[in-house]
Every structure is written in C-alpha cells, then in structure tokens.
Design brief:
With about 100 residues, this protein is an alpha/beta fold. Helices cover about 40% and strands about 15% of the residues.
Amino acid sequence: MKVFVSQPMKGKTKEEILKERNDALDKFKTSIVGFELVETYFENFNGNRLQFLGKSISEGLALADIALFLGNWHEYDGCRCEHFIAVQYKVPCFYIDVIT
C-alpha cells in the first residue's frame, strides 16, 4: 500500500518538514501496517509553485492508495488542491494533527 503525504512546507526547513512528516507517519503506523511512502519532498527540483504541485500530483498522489493530510493542510493552496483531487478520484484520505 502506497501512502502520499500532503503537508504545508512553505517557510519550513528541510529538517522541519521531514521531522513533521516522520512524526505523523509514526502515528499513522498504529492504524495502517505495511505501507510504502511515496516521496514528495523534491530536494533537487527547480520549479515554481505550480510545477511543484504538478509534480506532487503526477509523481505522488497519482501513485498512492491512500492520501495522508497533515496539520493545517487546509490553510495552504497546494494542499487544498491535492485534497480536492484525492476526493474527486476517490483516494481514501486520512488526517493527522501535528505538533510543531
């Protein structure tokens, strides 16, 4: 089972992003056993916001069996777009609050 993670990244360091994601995945592991993370942290991608969103959808969400939305995802345009697409295409969605 492949899991896509949608999380706010704007203004956060790589370390903050990965820590938040890993903490959430630790919580998620208690609900779902045996999953594979679809990588959505594109470190060496040089694109604008819309290109990042497109890459996230085409190389992340499109491959996922489950979408996991972290924290205040609903306050961020990209995360809201990912959520809309997940819902429209009936990708099961899970939500995890994160403490930063």
